[in-house]
Amino acid sequence: MEYRMLYVLLVVMCLAAGPTWADEIVIRFSHVVAPDTPKGKAADFFAERAAALTNGRVRVQVYPNSTLYRDREEMEALQLGAVQMLAPSLAKFSVLGVSDFELFDLPYIFADRDALARVTEGPIGRRLLGLLEPRGIKGLAFWDNGFKSFSANRPIRSPEDMVGLRMRIQASKVLEAQMQALGATPVMMAFSDVYPALSAGVVDGTENPHSNLYTQRMHEVQRYLTVSDHGYLGYAVITSKRFWDSLPRAVRRQLEQAMREASEYANRIAYEENVRALEAVRAAGTTTIIELDADQRAEFRRALLPVHELMAGRIGSDLIRSVYRETGFDPLLR
Known about the structure:
The chain is of the alpha/beta class. It has helices at residues 2-17, 38-53, 71-80, 113-120, 123-130, 173-181, 194-200, 210-215, 241-246, 249-284, 294-304, 306-310, 312-315, 317-327, and strands at residues 25-30, 58-63, 85-86, 137-147, 149-152, 166-169, 185-188, 205-208, 224-227, 232-240, 288-291. The protein has a single domain, classed as D-Maltodextrin-Binding Protein, domain 2 (3-Layer(aba) Sandwich), CATH 3.40.190. Helix 2 packs antiparallel against helix 10. The protein is globular and about 60 Å long. Keywords: Signal, Transport. Belongs to the bacterial solute-binding protein 7 family. This is DctP family TRAP transporter solute-binding subunit.
């Protein structure tokens, strides 16, 4: 009897301690863009490095192009444990009540890639990722995708050219305010629905980094592309905190190393991929590319900077000012 009681006690103690992960660890990594985008390539790179650094103990299964879950489904799937890793765009964290991440949607908030890196790779970025932990989510890294351009079926050279256009946006109050500031009608829509919506004329245009536009073939149904660099699109790689904390400490260290390497790779290739995608759009001959001059860019900037003040109550005025200080941004420069 005493032996049996001791055995039961040991079993209970083992169960309470959590899994031992003696077998292969499978991580399902779901995302909504094509494999040949910067995010798609970085996810595959992470899978390769995770396998190599753990000597095959960890197998990362990457599911691109919304093959598992669409935009609005993937966060719930992570919380339910149906997937273990995502790389959602930064605006999507507002559904968790963390609207601070909509900072990244503010138009012209980052003058260039260096200004962006001072935020994502510094204390502000670390603090933002930390805000996810009370929601049961572990933020692992920021990945770039690039600066956005407008596309439509009429030329856009000034804010007035946007008036009346139905423009697809991802779910973001900041992006909604941005389009309204330009006189356009914002239409929130899942990324996987954008090409058919553009093709059918449900929406007139959209905004994207060039790699997203090209890999989703949007240039085939958009006659004009305006290189405006008016906003930024990036991602946060996340996992379930419960899942992450349950991993053996040695495996976590190996995955952290794999993520550091994948992040360096992702942020390095994002710019290169967008340059190549723009040239591919140009070579396709289906889309007229409009390059704004300095005066035209200044006109868009003047029209869009009031969005910063409008959204300060939602994002946090202290957070916005801290970004201004970190990057040297001058909100009075119109």
